[in-house]
Amino acid sequence: MLTRRPPPADRAVCRAHAGDAPALARLCAAHAAYERIPYAAEGHVARLADALTAGRLRAWLARLHGDVVGYASVTLDFSTLAGAPFLHLDCLYLEPDARGLGLGAELLAAAAAQARALGCAQLQWQTPTWNADAIRFYDRLGAARNEKHRYTLAV
């Protein structure tokens, strides 16, 4: 089970707000580059700010020595098969120099706490099959792995 531990003075995980959208967008661009997927910068900051303000997106920022070095973001979803809501972890990303310091677990703990607060029984996410470091991290946390393929259809 994920639990939050008090962060040392030189690091913190805090909820993102609309004013954090520029920092969040910068991390999204780095995340997209890392995952080798397209990133559309135009209007992204405004869309993130709007989604954070409206509550469609919940996100947390990881700070190290005062610098924003990572984020986790979630959206509320519903499982027809389970007949229950779940929280979808859309993104979890840390800059390379911030990995291995426990910030990923803290970000995931914040997302899990939000899922519990919303009455969700599950937090669900996916990761690229080539991302061995992320897979080891999630396995160490005790997350159950479901083998599926993720598809995207442009509409």
List the helices and strands and how they pair.
Elements: E1 11-15, H1 21-35, H2 44-54, E2 58-64, E3 67-79, E4 84-94, H3 103-117, E5 123-124, H4 132-140
Parallel strand pairs: 4-5
Antiparallel strand pairs: 1-2, 2-3, 3-4
Describe the structure.
This protein is of the alpha+beta class and 155 residues long. The protein has a single domain (11-140), classed as Aminopeptidase. It has helices at residues 21-35, 44-54, 103-117, 132-140; strands at residues 11-15, 58-64, 67-79, 84-94, 123-124. A 5-stranded mixed β-sheet has the order 1-2-3-4-5, with helices on both faces. Helix 1 crosses helix 2. The chain is globular.
> What's the overall geometry?
globular
Order of helices and strands: EHHEEEHEH
CATH architecture: 3-Layer(aba) Sandwich
CATH superfamily: Gcn5-related N-acetyltransferase (GNAT)
Calculate Rg over CA atoms: 15 Å
User: Tally of extended strands?
Assistant: 5
Major sheet description: 5 strands, mixed
**Mean of the pLDDT scores?**
90
Strand content: 15-25%
The CATH topology is given as: Aminopeptidase
Order of strands in the sheet with the most strands?
1-2-3-4-5
Number of domains as seen in the coordinates: 1
Helix fraction by DSSP (H/I, runs of at least 4): 25-40%
N- and C-termini, Cα separation: 38 Å
How many helices?
4
Q: Class, according to the CATH hierarchy?
A: Alpha Beta
Structural class: alpha+beta
Poorly predicted tracts of residues: 3-7
